[in-house]
User: Fold Hydroxyethylthiazole kinase from Arabidopsis thaliana.
Amino acid sequence: MESKSEQNEWSSGVWAHLTAVRQQSPLVQCITNFVSMDLVANTLLSAGASPAMVHSVVEIPDFTPHIHALCVNVGTLTPDWLPSMKAAAELASQLRKPWVLDPAAVSCSGFRLKACLELIELKPTVIKGNGSEIIALSSASRGQTKGADSSHESTDAIEAAKSLAMSSGAVVAVSGAVDIVTDGKQVIGVHNGTKMMQQITATGCSLAGLIVAFLAIDSSRVLEATVSAMAVFGIAGELGEAMANGPASLRMHLIDCLYGLDETTVLKRVNVTRLG
Amino acid sequence: MESKSEQNEWSSGVWAHLTAVRQQSPLVQCITNFVSMDLVANTLLSAGASPAMVHSVVEIPDFTPHIHALCVNVGTLTPDWLPSMKAAAELASQLRKPWVLDPAAVSCSGFRLKACLELIELKPTVIKGNGSEIIALSSASRGQTKGADSSHESTDAIEAAKSLAMSSGAVVAVSGAVDIVTDGKQVIGVHNGTKMMQQITATGCSLAGLIVAFLAIDSSRVLEATVSAMAVFGIAGELGEAMANGPASLRMHLIDCLYGLDETTVLKRVNVTRLG
Amino acid sequence: MESKSEQNEWSSGVWAHLTAVRQQSPLVQCITNFVSMDLVANTLLSAGASPAMVHSVVEIPDFTPHIHALCVNVGTLTPDWLPSMKAAAELASQLRKPWVLDPAAVSCSGFRLKACLELIELKPTVIKGNGSEIIALSSASRGQTKGADSSHESTDAIEAAKSLAMSSGAVVAVSGAVDIVTDGKQVIGVHNGTKMMQQITATGCSLAGLIVAFLAIDSSRVLEATVSAMAVFGIAGELGEAMANGPASLRMHLIDCLYGLDETTVLKRVNVTRLG
Assistant:
């Protein structure tokens, strides 16, 4: 059982992170998919960050040096977008800016899997996926070709996440009924969030964007910043669902709640535990 | 006048189709336009289907064999997207997976009209458009070049729809004040829906996506599955409008209502008639 | 102090413009960024206009001659989109159709700044940006390379806007706490709107789209039509914020309010002053 003081520590850390995002309004570059651009941008704005959906390879040398952190999401990947993603990721890594890889639907093609493995070579700070995506990536990173099974629950993905974290050097975040965050040694569970959030497209991408904003303001504590972002997004979803009649109103209330989230609510609702 | 037993048959068919979509959660690949990706995905999710917005030509050989059905929408067509659409459509036809063509704004250019005619050669299961689009396609299929007049009501388009259905082998669905579905012989009218739905961008595209999901779970009864999808979408719009203050809240309530639609409401509200 | 009769003149002008948009439903072509396509289209629909998100360079010769006005927004510019923007802008100028340039994030790269300067050569009717964007463009138009500082308030941008208007021949609109519209001589302030609108992505792009619709129905009075569009959008935002719990519900209510805006409300709320 989690000690009360440790739970309090997580809670106050989450609130400190959210406050810092609101105060510093980090500039977050997103190279994300077409489906999620709108919701990712609105998620970041409602959290207090400054999103910039800049994806042209010709703009990266000028723009990426000015950002605080980067999000790369392969959800609607085509070959012409990959050079931009690589250029931005490489530059971010060189300049020691944190960046997150969201390997959305990584198993849908050999092309996409290969692209994600190449992006992992560029040293993402965090890899954020669902259970199936993390299992597929972890297997492929070990040279295995077993396909992903989308029925994997995130808790089943713990070993895959730890393995991927060890081999890649990234913190790995797995969204699911219980969100998992691991650096390969520690395993943290985030129990916030609701099932209906999965009925809204682009919530996973938006969570990845939010993690980027939190990394931007605490890049030395990657595991903790990632946990904080997942807890904040989950709490906004819980509050939103209490007001919602279905997924579309949940989507609206989630963003409103993220915007209005206050200290009392955060401290009361953060539900984070050590799983290993 | 429609017999009561025939109306009951349509109603119970609509409910059976919706239930099957929810239970089977078919995987629906959408190659659609930039404007509609978000709403199409959320419409499919709220109906219980699994949308996948995969459009890269390099991913189609790996991915399309795993889908249950395909949606192709030319709303923001550029020459570089057409090969993907053709490759996916051709593969879907080969593998006997149903696919829907939405010839959005087909008359806006010679390029787009030609592209749609080429796609029709690949044997769509259903062609879904508004009256103007269907009239333009039907004329062009007969070698006529008369431009479309956007003032055509869907009921005026019946003859064009029948002709296009006969020449293409597709079931043709025409959205409008009364939705029309025809296989070239039978003509069915779907009287559900509200006028304000036309004030929301991408509702037509979302309806096309929904038809795909319904075809996925009953591909042997194309006419009936198409009617069911149109009735369900229309009913969700009616329920949504009763709660809405304008098009943006209608959009939200429509998705929520689609998600929550129950048997009693479906059986009571389905309004389908034989027109010929 | 503004005379009451002058204020009344602005108010009745705004209402006359909105009424004309609703009655004439102008066809507005938008070549805009991926993030904003959905909201721009819904803004135009809710105002009574007909949006068409047609951006392929191969479609412009067929399509652009039929439009009433054009919107060009560089928010997610890549080199392959620029020829379309130029072709459409050039054709619009040739055919004396009004067009608006939204130089979104113009300072994010040398490529984007150069593209905007080239587009300005094609004689936009209106250039709409925030203070930083207008200052950056104005400096660059004078051959200066000083970067934009995003902390500039729109009122600080008056001189830059006047200078850009004089050099380009366009009316320049600057969104901010007080919106500014100038033809280089007259300077008009629009005091409608709320701060929270900046927490929603694509509101600036949507305002640009709305200006296009208003130009379409009164192309001979560019300054006045631009002021009207900004006042209408601002009023919709004020009404929306009164009903909102955060940015996502504001976004919904804004569109609903734009759709339902009536004469009494417009006449009462328009807040326009001469600043110079």
